[in-house]
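does this look right to u?? FE2/S2 (inorganic) cluster version
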Amino acid sequence: MGKGLRKGLTSYGDAGFSLFLRKAFIKAMGYSDDALDRPIVGITNTYSDYNPCHGNAPALIEAAKRGVMLAGAMPMVFPTISIHESFAHPTSMFLRNLMAMDTEEMIRAQPMDAVIIIGGCDKTLPAQIMAAASVDLPAIVIPVGPMVVGHHKGEVLGACTDCRRLWSAHRAGEIDAEEIEVVNGRLAPSVGTCMVMGTASTMACITETMGLSLPMSATIPAPHAERFRLAEASGRRAAEMAVSGGPKPSELMTPAAFRNAQVVMQAIGGSTNGLIHLTAMANRAGVEIDLEAFDAIGREVPVLIDLKPSGDHYMEHFHHAGGVPKLLRELGDLIDTSALTVGGGTLRDVVAGAEEVPGQTVIRTPADPIKPIGAMAVLRGNLAPRGALIKHSAATPRLLTHTGRAVVFDSTADMAARIDDPDLDVTADDILVLRNAGPKGAPGMPEAGYLPIPKKLGRQGVKDLVRISDARMSGTAFGTIVLHITPESADGGPLALVRSGDMIRLDVPARSIELLVDEAELAIRAAALPPVERPDWAERGYARLFYDSVTQADEGCDFDFMMRPKV
Ligand code: FES
Ligand code: MG
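got this back:
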């Protein structure tokens, strides 16, 4: 039996009075003693008018509450910060750690025996799971689920891989102003998260793989009735966990679970952002994510899911093909099925329950993969001493080994000002370089790594060129794009030393990225750089905390004082 309303009483010598006071206040809501005597399941509410991805949160909360009450416990809904990708200035990543802190402290502060976490838009599940790992109270995740697909002129559309592709077509003059407005209304036809294999889908698949949510929770479309039944079932399970006291996140977020998550991330053609979030989650759980190990997993795990941006389909098709349980079955020995799940069993039970769908082509077999090796590779070299990441499954194969002349942009503002300048000295063989766009640089490591194709090249029909930066990229983007160059330029990384006209060599098969300038010259340039100082934007408030404490991409961009020592 959980402690219910008695949990965390600050008695100051008279626990009876503290409980009396607590009950006196909460009874103002009309609760009976019977209701208040039960185990309590907290439920996060991240509904916001600014967050269409979480537009179904109120209905999911209702369904989860129903499940909690059917199982005899008491649901208590509480608000936390809500973050949407498009409405989070300067970036949603800047706010992820704030959401993690808010969620952690609200779970700690208020009496609850278990917690249901409802979220989904890119940074929210990582933030919420980071929080849950730190509190270590029994927790179950209900992702809000992906949007259903849109349609335009007989073509299937998805946010926001097709947002980018069609906007590029508009920039190149192939789609006129009137039609692009029509398309705008068809890219996100329902509430829910982006329905390609972007960051939200990646994190939902990882969450399910790690056993933090019930089977099929990653893929059921957001508006489907099945998702609300999943929420009800999750509510029931949370009520059981409130009584039994487990499993706790620490029992689920084990080295085996994190390894499984990395396997799945490669196999789904997951978002590059997923690696940063997974690292941050692991750091909260005291587990190490090693970049070389992640790269090694990528060399042995095939991409099996045929979803945009690496493939052709969308999350609802993945769902109807059998979802994550079927994927785990296909991955066979690459997955450690002894890992526990929040449902009370192991991944073995999940795999055993996987549905076989005759004729489906979205979840491939290792014998017939989308790509024989994983989606992402870790690069190193004099430009990225602590690593960089490329999603080569969504890149142009011939550009994966390429030497080109650097065209450097000093900041996102510099890029915006010059990228479409007809006089910009750039060719299709050049390498676009963006810097000062890392965790501290921009700040909040914006998704600026997908540098647009300069207009004059776009008009010539150029669809891709090598682009490198210390920024992140939307998981929904396509291109030969090197990201997360670490350390970032604003923190003294060598990316700060590149000059337009320098030669850079990208060699993905060899996992290297090199600036072809001799060391003596680089030392002279390094000596001439201004010292790293706290910028004006970081003088006060959360911005100051962020600037002073945020770690680099290889450490998950969490605050340095939030991590748990490694076990
Ligand atoms: Fe919310 Fe894409 S904008 S998941
Ligand atoms: Mg995104």
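The chain has a mean pLDDT of 95. idk if thats expected tbh
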